[in-house]
């Protein structure tokens, strides 16, 4: 039998077609095998995929063994299937995978539909595939990379379907899904509706399921888009037969209620400001250290590190109590002054409000919706219901005000910082960076603020060390020109001048010591901030963080040794192996006798000087310290110490133009009460290791030296007062100056100018 030419011409093409088909099929199978065996990247085990805690959070512990908090990649709270409302399950299936109950992980019909409609009528991924995608942390990359990722997702999806029930897959999905920064259905339902997942209504479930498509459907930031997406989900529920047409119509007519929206506090725990700051330090540590097993850098959020800190949880509680006890009192004083001087203070500072408006969620959301800036700005003048910070039990209150006024309200809240540390070991025992971490995330411990007269002990130390001054050394007063105004300033014994915080005396010492020597010594004392090279630093015009000021003061109770603060004692891996231990850096910067001389002088500040109100607190140990105030009480400071403990605190508004004009006495009233409250609580608590050394130990060289006796220090202070020749009633106040020290106008930093008696445009003033 003969074959036709036509038959002969067809056979090769058919062969080629079958070869291409089987070759492609074989290639696809090989790709699947390669993906399955990890040739395109490791494939996690089912045990690891099932366990959402496979990435272990790192834990932070206090020195007394309390869990302070965690660092994690995803903050999730698990729920079981029976703890999830059928409304959320039905909405998820109807919207994302209508044939979820019928397929085995991959839906061929859905894939074909997605291909032929180019995704316009829905994607091809099943709920199981989406779960696999989340578990593999995939979704980014070019078409080739995404193709490989799809293969891996299919493999994991099939494995999930073979090993888990549909209920388990739904539960895993809802526990892993993200709603913005909220991971898991429980966190999402708590954030947006303040309820458990079991209690979600159809409308609420539709809103949350709609958000799974992206942040653009967030009901808070994008209410219009969220409403449209919610209605689409409701339509899907109707199409799937979960609700009737009438019910769908009624549900779509209901507006989305976001009145109960409240962000979950992801930083609950002990000392949140402290944990935020050391978190950055720990990330740097991880970048510099590798896991010897994996050869990769440690991951703070996934490797289950254990970080042991120096914080004492009880002392942290006392520090926070001191803030909540004292700050409302000072805030009331500021509020009363704002009624009189508020408009004056805000004059020419509306740019501060404008900047805050542009940083707000309202501005960003409206900008994303293409609303014009004029319209956005106008919306800030429309009164709305809101919650604002308040000094009550909950630290918040419901009110109605314009967003513009709410910004001004928040700006007018006084902020604070408080830190206590062991001056010998450097261990930081407590850390408060603001009045409330839930409302104000900015840490003021590490912020730079003008230090006022708390800088004077550093200058006085140089007078003792370099010029041989003693508490009875007389410092002359006389004419002092400040910002073009010449007045007579008070003089007196060194003990008197520091106790009363006389600016003229500080200026005189600067003329003797010189600016360059002062800058050099400040650096030796641990002040890393670059100080302005002008004589006005003698009056405290420099902006220095509280933590650096505390380090500079460690030399006084620590016998002349300067100790750098430390926050962490050791870091362990998840198995308890010690990765690193930390020790403080200590160096001697002054002699023990000079340190004790300064202690004697600073005891005088407390006994009869600007910090005399500290004697009203029940603190059984000897205490010494220094108040600090900048112009018009913009900043209030107190740094003090007992023989065992050093602590410092600052008070002020975030924006320095907001000032307490009168009625307070700077560091003495704004800051000192917190210190007094804290120390009285610490020394009354017999569970804490304080109270063993109640007096400052006198160096052998100074024992029986009458100059350092308390009664003689009191005498020097009285003599200083009686010898005052100033016309300012002996308080040393040189007047208020609105301008801070200015590089262009201040006297140059040259020791040739040591004899100058003129300071241009300084902001710092005396304590009074």
Describe this structure in words.
With 768 residues, the chain is α+β, with helices and mostly antiparallel strands. It is built from 25 helices and 23 strands. The strands form 8 sheets. It has a 5-stranded mixed β-sheet, covered by helices on one side. Strands 9-8-22-21-20 form a 5-stranded antiparallel β-sheet, sandwiched between helices. The chain is elongated. The N and C termini lie far apart (123 Å).
| Helical coverage, percent range | 40-55%
Q: What's the number of extended β-strand segments?
A: 23
Rg (CA only): 34 Å
Task: Specify the overall morphology.
Answer: elongated
pLDDT averaged residue by residue: 83
What gap, in angstroms, lies between the N and C termini? 123 Å
> How many DSSP H or I helices?
25
Main β sheet profile = 5 strands, mixed
Beta content = 5-15%
Task: Label this structure with key terms.
elongated, 768 residues, alpha+beta
Nutshell version of this structure?
The protein is α+β, with helices and mostly antiparallel strands and 768 residues long.
């Amino acid at each position: 039998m003969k074959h036709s030419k036509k038959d002969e011409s067809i056979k090769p093409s058919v062969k080629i077609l079958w070869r291409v088909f089987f070759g492609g099929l074989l290639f696809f199978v090989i790709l699947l095998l390669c993906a399955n065996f990890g040739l395109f990247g490791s494939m996690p085990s089912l045990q690891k995929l099932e366990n959402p805690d496979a990435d272990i959070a790192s834990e932070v512990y206090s020195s007394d063994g309390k869990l302070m908090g965690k660092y994690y990649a995803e903050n999730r709270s698990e729920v079981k299937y029976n703890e999830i409302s059928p409304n959320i399950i039905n909405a998820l299936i109807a919207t994302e995978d209508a044939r979820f109950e019928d397929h085995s992980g991959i839906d061929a019909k859905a894939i074909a539909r997605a291909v032929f409609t180019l995704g316009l009528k829905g994607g091809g991924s099943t709920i199981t595939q989406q779960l696999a995608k989340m578990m593999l942390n995939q979704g980014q990359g070019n078409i080739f990379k995404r193709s490989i990722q799809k293969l891996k997702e299919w493999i994991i999806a099939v494995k999930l379907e073979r090993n888990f029930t549909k209920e388990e897959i739904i539960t895993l999905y809802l526990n892993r899904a993200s709603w913005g920064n909220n991971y898991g259905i429980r966190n999402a339902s708590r954030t947006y509706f303040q309820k458990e997942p079991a209690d979600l209504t159809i409308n609420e479930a539709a809103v949350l399921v709609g958000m799974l498509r992206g942040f653009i459907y967030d009901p808070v930031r994008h209410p219009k888009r969220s409403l449209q997406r919610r209605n689409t989900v409701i339509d899907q529920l109707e199409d799937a037969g979960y609700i009737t047409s009438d019910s769908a119509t009624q549900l779509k007519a209901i507006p989305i209620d976001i009145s109960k929206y409240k962000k979950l506090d992801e930083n609950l725990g002990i000392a949140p400001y402290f944990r935020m700051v050391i978190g950055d330090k720990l990330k740097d540590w991880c970048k510099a250290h590798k896991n010897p097993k994996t050869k990769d850098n440690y991951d703070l959020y996934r490797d289950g590190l254990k970080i042991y800190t120096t914080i004492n949880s009880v002392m942290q509680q006392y520090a926070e109590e001191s803030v909540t006890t004292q700050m409302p009192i000072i805030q009331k004083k500021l509020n009363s002054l704002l009624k009189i001087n508020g408009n004056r203070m805000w004059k020419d500072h509306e740019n501060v409000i404008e900047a805050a408006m542009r940083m707000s969620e309202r501005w960003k959301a409206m900008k994303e919706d293409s609303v014009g800036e004029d319209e956005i700005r106008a919306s800030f003048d429309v009164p709305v219901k809101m919650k604002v910070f308040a000094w009550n039990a909950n630290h918040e209150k419901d009110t109605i005000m314009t967003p513009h006024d709410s910004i001004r309200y928040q700006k007018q809240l006084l902020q604070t910082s408080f830190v206590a540390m062991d001056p010998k070991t450097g261990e930081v025992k407590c850390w408060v960076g603001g009045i409330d971490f839930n409302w104000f995330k900015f840490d003021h411990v590490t912020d730079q603020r003008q230090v006022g007269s708390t800088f004077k002990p550093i200058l006085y130390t140089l007078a003792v060390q370099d010029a041989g001054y003693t508490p009875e050394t007389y410092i002359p007063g006389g004419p002092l020109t400040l910002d073009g105004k010449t007045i007579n300033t008070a003089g007196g014994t060194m003990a008197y001048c520091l106790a009363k915080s006389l600016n003229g005396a500080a200026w005189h010492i600067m003329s003797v010591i010189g600016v360059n020597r002062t800058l050099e010594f400040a650096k030796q004392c641990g002040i890393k901030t670059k100080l302005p090279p002008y004589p006005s630093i003698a009056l405290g015009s420099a902006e220095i963080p509280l933590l650096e000021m505390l380090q500079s003061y460690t030399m006084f109770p620590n016998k002349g040794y300067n100790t750098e603060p430390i926050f962490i004692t050791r870091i362990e891996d998840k198995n308890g192996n010690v990765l690193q231990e930390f020790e403080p850096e200590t160096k001697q910067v002054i002699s023990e006798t000079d340190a004790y001389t300064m202690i004697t002088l600073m005891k005088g500040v407390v006994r009869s000087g600007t910090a005399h109100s500290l004697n009203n607190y029940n603190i059984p140990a000897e205490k010494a310290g220094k108040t600090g105030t900048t112009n018009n009480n913009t900043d209030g400071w107190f740094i003090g110490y007992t023989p065992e403990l050093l602590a410092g605190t600052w008070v002020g508004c975030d924006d320095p133009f907001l000032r307490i004009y009168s009625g307070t006495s700077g560091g003495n009233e704004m800051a000192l009460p917190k210190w007094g409250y804290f120390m009285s609580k610490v020394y009354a608590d017999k569970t804490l290791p304080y109270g063993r050394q109640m007096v400052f130990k006198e160096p052998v060289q100074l024992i029986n030296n009458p100059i350092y006796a308390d009664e003689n220090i009191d005498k020097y202070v009285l003599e200083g007062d009686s010898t005052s020749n100033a016309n300012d009633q002996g308080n040393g106040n040189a007047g208020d100056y609105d301008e801070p020290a200015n590089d262009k106008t201040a006297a140059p930093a040259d020791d040739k100018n040591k004899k100058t008696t003129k300071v241009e445009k300084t902001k710092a003033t005396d304590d009074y």
